[in-house]
# Entry
Amino acid sequence: MGLFASVSSTANSVRCLAEVTSTASPSRLIDSRPNTPKSTRPTVAQHPPHGHLAARAARSVGVTHAGEAWSADNEPMSGWEAAKARMYDVFGHLPRPERVAGCPHCVEPGEERCLLAGPVGSVEAESLARYAAKALTTWGGVTELRYFLPRLLECAAADAFSYPDPEIVLGKLASADWRAWPEEERDAVADFLSEWWDETLRHHPARPPIDTVLCALAATGMDLTSCLDTWSGLDTDASIRHLHDFVMTGWSGRRLTNAFWNRDSPAYEQALTWLTGGPAATAVEAAFARQSREDLLDLLAAIHTVITPR
# Structure
């Protein structure tokens, strides 16, 4: 801990680190982690999806010579908003199914009518949730999943379903072998996933929380390297606070605690190695060296105490 403390250039930083490490052992920090079921996740100000993106995508999304996306109303769009609009644009060529067949023991006859009554972007989250849980297993196939996908991902990213969880919804992509889809569709999905991660890192608190988002991304089968590399920057207050949350609530006994993790997957190994194998600790030390705010120094010191082998 002497090496970690030495990166501070002020006496206050050293005092801050000493106070945290003297009063909070790794075991105490782990034992005191709060349980945060979905029903009690922190609420943040955000607008639930209501299909406005579908309407925007139904118009055109312009791109300037510098690569910045603009709406048809000549308003600049964030990368996150553009990625959501692109999903509706790219998958908009798919025809609306006449019906969505399901297991007769699991799906009532005509239950899909409310899903097909209007544009896919206008489907209410409450109506879509039941399909989201049963897609590919007992209700519909890959064709129907691709048709509903822009709305499914929009709702999952906004944590708009009481059930299923985002990890379940995103896992449908792996089940549908999305990386074998046409290139334009693959690129749109990959862009959505990347922008969702970046958007999550930009805001704290986030809904869904960072642990859920990372696990959901892993459920798609994607490589997490770029996500973890971005997080390693720890260049914003939000990214530091997210890492503190992740360490204190999403990790225990040197394993990731989210029940949706596939512990045999390469993504799980990537995340665990990043957290416990040195990269995260190196990132925390670098952030501590350039940080001057005592509240963030406290968080960084607490993270380092927990993830560094004693």
About this structure: Residues 5-37, 39-61, 63-67 have pLDDT under 50 and may be disordered. The two ends are 10 Å apart (CA to CA). The chain is about 55% helix and 5% strand.
